[in-house]
């Protein structure tokens, strides 16, 4: 029987029109999106999912991606077992924790409405940039970051996505300085179209507000391990870890490696695209099955695969 590890998409996966076929054809998915609309006081399917301008704003993107991921989970609920663990990228951790019933949908959605607003406001305080550096020589990248920091420039590691992809964030002068060094070293550098330097000290004001917001929240024991981007280990103190998460770098490689070590043999991503599935290809052994649900066709295919898996297990 498959040992499932669920991957929950993060910000950047969104695009206008995402999930429209799921909304039109899958009642269990539509019910979740409609609940999100009720909580937000606006038609999320019409005014967010299909509006590129809104969807690319952090305050809307985060709750929208969460709602889509949870809608997919709701549609697959009858065949989605046993889950060995879950892992989300940044905001995807809220999706993973909700799947594990450590928090409920309404609680997580409201938290993300506020988290997205805090992070967007922090992003508007100072102009920043993010770049992806594609190289297996990450120690050299980090050494360069330390060099420019020693010169008074503000550049930080933000996302350790794979053994060959490290995302940096900083102000314009700092990013320009490291790009020149990386170009001379022959490293491929890709500028990222994001609204802020997430997971760095640039998010300090958002971090303070989020910690205050989380202070009165109560969480339950997870039904299965949820692996933190911040620690690379299963969540223990949800409140503290989520509060620290937006100012500290994400460690997707470390967290996924830990989840796979707990005998997960099948990964399924829930969200607008296959970004985490692609990361997993660079991290997981080739024997690990990788699936993704991003639209109605892929939902049907994965549902059939999971149903067949349950039938075979029942016969054994």
Explained architecture:
With 316 residues, this protein is an alpha/beta fold. The chain has 2 domains: 4-123 and 201-315, 3-Layer(aba) Sandwich (Malonyl-Coenzyme A Acyl Carrier Protein, domain 2); 128-192, Malonyl-CoA ACP transacylase, ACP-binding (Alpha-Beta Plaits, 2-Layer Sandwich). Helix content is 50%, strand content 16%. A 5-stranded parallel β-sheet has the order 7-2-1-9-10, with helices on both faces. A hairpin with a 2-residue loop joins strand 4 (155-162) and strand 5 (165-171). Helix 10 (204-214) runs antiparallel to helix 11 (238-245). The radius of gyration is 19 Å and the shape is globular. Keywords: Acyltransferase, Transferase.
Alpha-beta content class? alpha/beta
Shape label: globular
Q: Tell me how many strands there are.
A: 10
Mean pLDDT: 95
- The CATH class label of the largest domain is Alpha Beta
How large a portion of the residues is in β-strands, by DSSP E? 15-25%
Number of helices, counting only DSSP H or I runs of 4 residues or more: 14
**What string, H for helix and E for strand, traces the elements in order?**
EHHHHHEHHEHEEHEHEHEHEHEH
Fourth CATH level, the homologous superfamily of the largest domain:
Malonyl-Coenzyme A Acyl Carrier Protein, domain 2
Can you list the strand order of the major beta sheet?
A: 7-2-1-9-10
Helix content: 40-55%
Overall structural domain count = 2
Work out the oligomeric state of the chains in this entry: single chain
Main sheet? 5 strands, parallel
The CATH topology of the largest domain comes to: Malonyl-Coenzyme A Acyl Carrier Protein, domain 2
Taking all Cα atoms into account, the compactness measure Rg is 19 Å
- Cα end-to-end separation: 9 Å
CATH architecture of the largest domain: 3-Layer(aba) Sandwich
């Amino acid at each position: 029987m498959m040992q499932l590890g669920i991957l929950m998409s993060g910000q950047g996966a969104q695009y206008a029109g995402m999930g429209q076929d799921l909304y039109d054809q899958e009642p269990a998915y539509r019910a979740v999106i409609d609940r999100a609309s009720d909580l937000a006081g606006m038609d999320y399917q019409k005014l967010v999912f299909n509006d590129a301008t809104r969807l690319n704003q952090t305050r809307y993107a985060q709750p929208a991606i969460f709602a889509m991921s949870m809608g997919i989970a709701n549609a697959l609920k009858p065949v989605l077992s046993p889950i060995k663990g879950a892992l989300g990228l940044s905001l995807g951790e809220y999706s993973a924790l909700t799947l594990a019933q450590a928090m409920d949908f309404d609680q997580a959605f409201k938290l993300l409405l506020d988290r997205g607003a805090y992070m967007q406001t922090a992003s508007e305080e100072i102009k920043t940039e993010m770049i992806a550096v594609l190289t297996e020589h990450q120690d050299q990248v980090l050494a360069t970051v330390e060099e420019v920091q020693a010169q008074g420039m503000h550049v930080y590691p933000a996302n350790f996505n794979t053994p060959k992809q490290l995302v940096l964030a900083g102000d314009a002068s700092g990013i320009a300085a490291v790009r020149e060094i990386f170009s001379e070293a022959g490293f491929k550098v890709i500028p990222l179209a994001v609204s802020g330097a997430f997971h760095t000290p640039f998010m300090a004001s958002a971090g303070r507000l989020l910690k205050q917001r989380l202070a009165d929240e109560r969480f339950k024991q997870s039904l299965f391990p949820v692996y933190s981007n911040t620690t690379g280990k299963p969540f223990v103190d949800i409140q503290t870890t989520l509060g620290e998460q937006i100012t500290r770098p994400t460690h997707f490689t470390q967290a996924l490696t830990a989840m796979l070590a707990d005998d997960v043999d099948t990964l399924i991503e829930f969200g607008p695209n296959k970004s985490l599935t692609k990361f997993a290809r660079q991290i997981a052994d080739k024997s690990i099955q990788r699936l993704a649900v991003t639209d109605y066709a892929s939902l049907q295919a994965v549902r059939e695969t999971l149903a067949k898996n349950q039938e075979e297990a029942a016969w054994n």
